[in-house]
Write a structure and sequence with these properties.
Elements (H helix, E strand, L loop, with lengths): L27 H12 L1 H8 L7 E6 L6 H4 L24 E7 L5 H8 L7 H6 L1 E5 L8 H6 L2 H9 L6 E6 L4 H10 L16 H11 L6 E5 L2 H14 L5 E6 L8 E5 L6 H15 L1 E2 L6 H11 L1 E5 L6 E10 L5 E12 L5 E7 L6 H18 L3 E12 L2 E10 L6 H11 L2 E3 L4 E3 L5 E11 L8 H10 L11 E5 L4 H4 L1 E8 L2 H19 L3
Parallel strand pairs: 1-2, 1-4, 2-3
Antiparallel strand pairs: 5-9, 6-7, 6-9, 7-8, 10-11, 10-13, 11-12, 12-17, 13-14, 15-16, 16-17, 17-19, 18-19
Amino acid sequence: MKMSKPGSPPGQVLFNYCTSGGPGPGSAEELQQFEKIQQGFANQFESFFPDNLAHKTIVVIPSLTLDQEVLAKVKGALHYEERLLCMLMLLRMPRAHVIYVSSMPIDPVIIDYYLHLLPGITGYHARERLTLLSCYDASATSLTQKILQRPRLLERIKQHIPSGHVAHIACFNSTCYERSLAVKLGIPIYGCDPSFMYCGTKSGSRRFFMKAGVPMPPGAEDLKSYDDIVHSVAALKDMYPLLKKAVIKLNDGFSGDGNAILKYPDLTDKRELFNWIHHNLYKEIIPVAKELSFEVFLEKFRLMEGIVEAFIEGDVKVSPSVQCRINPLGEVDVISTHDQVLSGESGQVFVGAHFPADESYRAELGALGKLIAEELKKEGVLGRFSIDFVSVKENDAWKHYAIEINLRKGGTTHPFLMLQFLTDGHYDEASGLFETPNNQHRYYFASDNLQNDAYKGLAPQDLIDIAMFHGLHYDGATQKGVMFHMIGALSQFGKMGIVCIGESPEEAYLYYNKTIEVLDAETAAK
């Protein structure tokens, strides 16, 4: 039986956006049309994707179609739409067109920054094949919903797809809204059918880990209520008396902001412990997201459902991830590994990643990731996704626990795409290393959260000027240096993203530290 739960993203109300005609959202007719559109994608992929001279259009919809109340806790969340500007590198194919839609207009300086890096293509030639469209709407609604509310914008997107071009949608994540958008535009999504959204929830992830035979933390899934949390937290402690902490996770949380931590009291009597949990749990659970109260977290839990699992302890503990891809032909590839950098009191919030993961375990991670990907393939999953792990070193050997599947692009997607597009290199699954066409290896450190209040007020042109003056800018000749993203968030939030590429992990991180030193010096009070 397929484990699918079609429907709208949890916590969101499906409004009537069918103002431009066509089948109603979620209707049988829409589902049939979407299935028909997606069926033709395999032919497009096989015939046009390998041909760099093919006439094709990529419609980039960088919408974070997630719970907007939780997303609002992320500083500069609107500017996360800029992460997929790495897709502008596709304009290096001289007949490819890119249509990029955003909530608000993107500063031309930022666009020029990306186009300047295109190998073998002039900025003029690239701009002729780039269409930038905006909703002119900064409200706390997902970009895809904003587009669906604007029938004239939908028509403009259609009109900018040249006659004779094959086209598809590239998006951050795929929900019922992206499905409706695909039907209205009449083009497929290179991403997972929203009917399989459950596969990428915390509960669905645990079920696929079980099917693949991959270890995961002890816990319980498909929990619906506060009482379910109470009983699961108590059962965990009963089964594992030495357990110090438990993690409660929303099914559709992201970047750790949908998690909460519970520290167990130092009680040995089971009845006393259960009574403590029953009467004090609501006071002791601490949501990871700042300014998110437990009352709001619990309401989100009732809407999304979720899991409880053991917090994995270890003297030597890391948080690696594996990125996989299932293409429209059903081929499964491991395309990268990363060592994630997490912050917060309990290390739950994603802030950056080293590529590739440590050589002592990246092959093991790739193998585990492929086992899980093969199970997802059987389900019908398509596109890029990542699998997060917690790994603990015990007696000189690593033990890996699968944590979650992210059926979407994430914090490790755009840095890898940028490296791939800039160098025209490839990831070697056997060695776990990235190789350039001249057989050199490249490494990077990337972060979406380089933040300092002192950076507030820096305009995009200021940042680029500083990078150029101090020799931080990525150099196409050496294929090393620094790439910035989310630049639009810098002036208001003092925050941006960064990808630092080097010939070694040490050099990549050195670029990161040098960038911070330069920015701190440039913004220091005179």
